[in-house]
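Hi R.,

As promised on Friday, here is the backbone we talked about, encoded as structure tokens. Could you run it through your design pipeline when you get a chance and send me back a sequence?
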């Protein structure tokens, strides 16, 4: 992860967006972490990011895992192809 002062990011945002496609950029304010710039190479990467951070999706995954642990789930291997 690359650390960059906010002033530098403000001066050249386009460059840092390109860099963020390959590495996260930690933006600092007065030397302290203030935010992270995350880039996406493709729209699929953007979709994956949104899905991985969507609270309702994460809740459904947690519920499905809990059901599976108690014997109420269906294994993917058992689904018809």
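Update: got your reply. Pasting your designed sequence below so it's all in one thread:
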């Amino acid at each position: 992860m690359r650390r960059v002062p906010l002033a530098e990011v403000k001066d050249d945002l386009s460059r840092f967006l390109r860099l963020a496609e390959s590495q996260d950029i930690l933006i600092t304010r007065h030397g302290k972490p203030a935010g992270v710039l995350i880039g996406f190479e493709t729209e699929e990467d953007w979709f994956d990011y949104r899905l991985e951070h969507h609270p309702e999706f994460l809740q459904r995954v947690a519920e499905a895992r809990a059901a599976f642990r108690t014997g109420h789930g269906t294994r993917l291997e058992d689904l018809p192809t």
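One thing I noticed while checking it: Helices lie at 6-11, 13-20, 43-52, 55-69.

Thanks again,
M.
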